Every structure is written in structure tokens, then in C-alpha cells.
Amino acid sequence: MSVIEAMASETAVIMTDVGCAGDVVINDKNGIVIPVNDLNALVRAMSRFLNDPQERMRLAKAGKQTVLAMEPRTWDEYLDLYKKDWESCVHMYTNRKS
User: Fold this and answer.
1) I need a surface site. Which of 28, 63, 84, 97 has the fewest CB within 10 A?
2) Taking a C-beta distance cutoff of 8 angstroms, is the pair 67, 35 a contact?
3) Residue 49 contacts residue 55 (beta carbons within 8 Å)
4) Residue 17 CB: number of other CB atoms within 10 A?
5) What b/e readout covers 51-87, taking b as 16+ CB neighbours within 10 angstroms?
6) Does residue 72 have a cis peptide bond before it, meaning omega lies within 30 degrees of 0?
7) SS (H, E, C) the chain
8) Comparing C-alpha atoms, which of 40, 38, 14 is closest to residue 27?
9) Regarding beta strands 14-16 and 32-34, do their DSSP bridges make them parallel or antiparallel, or are they unpaired?
10) CA torsion 48→23→5→85, rounded to 10°?
11) Cis ω before 35 (30° cut-off from 0)
């Protein structure tokens, strides 16, 4: 959720490749996706944003466009989708434990 909020506010995003990362953030298209627990990758991504403001703004603008193109459009649609996402996560977690 916070990733989508950051993108909606035109903030460049760095995130790890967990969960639904690939569904929203596409590496080098609308943000940067790094491996989990890879401190060096995080440092490189942050340095990229600090040293290349044009690249940071390009990814931030692309992120905002991604969010603007997303469904749902209404609050009820959003809540329904959010509920389905949580149910899917619970289902995956439950099946992984068995």
C-alpha cells in the first residue's frame, strides 16, 4: 500500500522483490526493485537516485502514471480489491504452512 501511495505522490520508489512487487513496480520502468537483504543493491539504488536527479524524476513520473492507470476507480472497488488481496495472502500463507 505505501508503495502505491509513494508512486501516487510522484516519489521515486526503491523496493525489495517480495510479494506483489512485480505487479506494481517494474525495475527501471517505474521504480527500482532490489533483492531482499542485499545491502549493496540498496546502496547502489539510493546512490543512483542521489547522483542522477533526472533518472529519479523519470521513474517518479512513470510511477505516478502507473498509479493513475490502475483500477479500481471508486472507494468501494478499492476496498473490494484490498479485501481480495488480503484473502489471497492468507490463503498463500495457510497453504505454505501445511
Assistant:
1) 97
2) no
3) yes
4) 14
5) eeeeebeebbebbbebbeeeeeeeeeeeeeeeeeeee
6) yes
7) CHHHHHHHCCCCCEEECCCCHHHHCCECCCEEEECCCCHHHHHHHHHHHHHCHHHHHHHHHHHHHHHHCCCCCCHHHHHHHHHHHHHHHHHHHHHHHC
8) 14
9) parallel
10) -150
11) no
> For the CA atoms of the chain, what is the radius of gyration?
15
Place of cell 517505474: 30
Residue the block writes with cell 489471497: 88
Q: Grid coordinates standing for 85?
A: 488481496
Contact (Cβ atoms closer than 8 angstroms) between residue 27 and residue 87: no
Q: Which amino acid is at 12?
A: A
What pTM does this model have?
A: 0.71
For residue 31, is pLDDT > 90? yes
**More confident call, 25 vs 77:** 25
| Grid cell of 17 as nine digits | 522483490
